[in-house]
Structures
1.
Amino acid sequence: MKIVVAGTGYVGLVTGACLSHLGHNVTCVDIDENKIELMKKGISPIYEPGLEELLKEGYEQGRLSFTLDYKEAYKNADVIFIGVGTPEKEDGSANLDYVFIVAEQIAESVEKDCLVVIKSTVPIGTNDEIEEFIKEKSTHKVSVEVASNPEFLAQGTAVKDTLSASRIVIGVESKKAEKTLRDIYERFNQPLVITNRRSAEMIKYASNDFLALKISFINEIANLCEIVGANVEDVSKGMSFDSRIGDKFLKAGIGYGGSCFPKDTKALHWLAEDNGYELKTVKATIEVNENQKFRLVKKARKRFKRLRGLRIAVLGLTFKPGTDDLREAPSIPNVKVLINEGAEVVAYDPIGVNNFKKLFPQGVHYVDNPESALKDADLAFIFTEWNEIKSIPLTRYKALMKQAVIFDGRNCYDVKEAAEIGVEYHSVGRQAILPDFFGGDAK
Ligand code: UGA
């Protein structure tokens, strides 16, 4: 079977590499010449553990190839996966331009019947539209069916998530399409959920929005914990023993970021509104997350009165550890605020600095180790729980900073230990215990 994957971002490239790893012949198509050249050399254009090994393996064994020439690639394809981005439009709806560009290229190129499989996260009804669109635009007399096969991988664990997925969702309108996808995924040996296209599209949004809802819920509980004297970590733990609740996505912090939750919550909310229905839970999820991003900076403003002239260490820039992705990272609006308020910002991130520099070429001093960021700082913010950051002993903050004051958006440290060491430590959903010399409880 000749498989082609359109788009070599997190979804497309990981899909292509994993399909090839399991023995399929795969051609990856992209419009970016630099990316294609890198991949041909076995270099991954994105940071994703394990991916480069799979690229090299597939390329060396002749099962994985990369090309700019979409016409040639699509011409005789049996199956074409679409894994291009569906970013957010200004109004919150999903931008489907890239998906439609690929659909048009497919329509003008395919010379035999094929199955187009949409992996990109697309609003409910898009698969139907794409099938219709390809039918209208087809240059040759061919039959092209569209199937939905949403992706559930998380960045940083994408290869692992794909090779041992919790489930594979297949949305089809014919037995023929079902059989093709069953044949492709047989060797993955994972549970299959076979449904129609619209349900498959909805499964993806409902899954992401539910996870985002869990995070916003625990963040609200955390905020209330701070007011009423409870500890959100203990609360999450206590809840997690109930298997109906589970222990995942109950970690309070400065809100979710990344290329998926923010856009997928807004897109579903928009889609509901467009259909005359208000998704109240999703609306609340978005609102809570917007406010959560600025909880720490508000606390810092209260504590220091003004941030102007303060040297501020920013530890962690990416939206989560294990990725160089900065999309919707809480660090971005926070650093903007710090700069606007006249603070001197010194930033450290083990992987994300180069990308951050593109967003903030000026106004931030970048360092390549956390100690340099902490040296002589008046306060420190922790925005990402990288191991390189979590493992900094609290005694180093005490030794290096002008005054050891931490605002931790990821609850990396023990509150009591911080107080014992003499660090003023503010976190999320836990009572700050001020070290003795600050005099008492900082609640
Ligand atoms: C997310 C989903 O987890 C994947 O299942 C999905 O396939 C993917 O979106 C997608 O649609 O492509 P991802 O965005 O890579 O994956 O990252 P997550 O690990 O889900 O984290 C998202 C954000 O939530 C991060 O900012 C993280 O710090 C935050 N988070 C996560 C919390 O604040 N608390 C938690 O308990 C868990």
2.
Amino acid sequence: MAATRTFSIIKPDATRRNLTGAVTKMLEEAGLRVVASKRIRMSREQAEGFYGVHRERPFFKDLVAFMTSGPVVVQVLEGEDAVARNRQVMGATNPENADEGTIRKVHAESIEANTVHGSDSDENAQIEIDYFFKPEEIVG
Ligand code: CMP
């Protein structure tokens, strides 16, 4: 299968604990290549737009507050079947349900402070990549 791309965020709980390198190492060991990366502080508007599909969910306000509470590292990851590969190494959204050895099992603090975000489909990966990166910022 040809290489595809997915979008990843290393969340504030991870940057706070200085885990950017540890998380990236797990992504790389899972066969993903970082082809774009930047550390940013998301604005409220940016976070609300990014998580717009969750706007009506009870956790939306807390989610936006958490995602803007500290720096995040947004990344484009490339690899064979990148979306599925990334989801596998991330583990389940709720770390209590995550498989052993996954990023969330090893590092996540809670369902909200769950260390990483990853796109759930190729279509959303493209939308999410375009939300944070210009084409020239991605170097494969
Ligand atoms: P993420 O993949 O970034 O997409 C939406 C996020 O909402 C999810 O990860 C969780 O971190 C967060 N979240 C917080 N509370 C909940 C909840 N009760 N159910 C699902 N997601 C939640």
3.
Amino acid sequence: MTAAAESTVTLDGRFARELSELAVPWQAEEAPQPKLLVLNEELAGELGLDAEYLRSTEGVRLLLGNHVPEGSTPVAQAYAGHQFGGYSPLLGDGRALLLGEVTGTDGRLRDIHLKGSGRTPFARAGDGRAVVGPMLREYLVSEAMHALGIPSTRSLAVVATGRPVRRDTMLPGAVLTRVASSHLRVGSFQYARATENMDLLRRLADHAISRHYPEAAQADNPYLALFGRVVATQAELVARWMLVGFIHGVMNTDNMTISGETIDYGPCAFMDAFNPAAVFSSIDVGGRYAYANQPVIAEWNLARLAEAMLPLFNEDQEQAVAPAVEALGMFRRQYSDAWFAGMKTKLGLTEAPAGTTEAEEASELVDSLVALLKDGPVDYTLFFRNLSHAARGNNRPARGMVLDLAGFDAWVERWHDLKPDADLMDRVNPAYIPRNHLVEEALAAATEGDLDPFTRLLEVVRAPFDERPGLERYTEGASEDFGSYQTFCGT
Ligand code: AMP
Ligand code: MG
């Protein structure tokens, strides 16, 4: 490619510069036979990157970390984390690299990061690699989340490496090029705290404030303000997951961002039938990260963040605890407010002033609907979409989905009294989500070399609220023989 095209890619190294103790300079493993499987041209545009260039031989090598633009230094990031409740003092990017940061056309700084780029000093027993299926899953689900309006890391590309990778069987290797507003995690703070280097911990917090919550710098206690902002954004984020039936699957503290973006799509899934106990991850034997547990786990993870940040809140440990507990104590209310407000919108009810009988009636309607949904196998996504027909006067599609018909009829009558707005419902209740059976079908075909089902599904979930004729198949749940769905961590 021409020098002019390359000059469009300039990577900063701000993280590596400001937090060198958390950054190990490293090189990506060379891919024997790279093949670009999918490129996010829209995102490339937002980042000010030339899609044409990214499709070129050199551009694809850049997406793999094999071509490093002059002046940039890829690094593996160090972090710690609680995995399924157990603490690991050293995790870090075992198979990932931060290539550097780019400033998008909107002026925002974003990380360009690789997953599956080979072993690093943090690899432990891992092979440093990733395979086509799971990398395409992350691409698809993260882009679906973004289209749903839920904060998420984005996916710029998946490149097949041409190298077979050993899992249960031999599978085609791939690298995901990921974009995030940063890769700061709860686990980053846990790691910094464990080093007992107070200067590092403070620089990490300052870096987070500057990148994500600049207004916190003006607070009386900026670090407490930072913590409070993370609590609030995570409460909002997890409420958004719950409202669309998303199950992250591995809410370890190293998979929870400071920015409030959803990160690390491993064994994640969207719930089909409404079931608060739903677990999809094959490695989550105890159901720790079940659907209904997600808010509790988020709060637990934030308590770990508070512990890590404690010396920043106040030099006197005793004095630090009370304000931290108070800030963390906001989580439940913030979560519940966000969830109730979201549920009311899903029911087409515009927010009534708190304390009014309308507001109370709306909250009761939410509670009794959840009871109805729990009662029988009801497809969560399709039910809300069918309910907008009921708002327009046709109860049949939603009514046909529940077991307790008398209960439903009584509920609908009360709901109609509040004059639900069907158009509002259609703007917040997706018609299309990445349904598990469709994702599996698409990934299985892609692993065999046929990208068509993946490309079609991606197109569908990119416009989740815009119901189009001919796509009925994408609105339906799995047939019964799909069985109980599990995703596997053999990523
Ligand atoms: P994850 O479950 O993807 O959040 O990863 C948890 C930790 O395991 C992180 O430190 C990863 O870098 C590391 N890891 C996961 N898979 C591999 C692999 N194949 N090779 C090396 N490290 C890995
Ligand atoms: Mg992770």
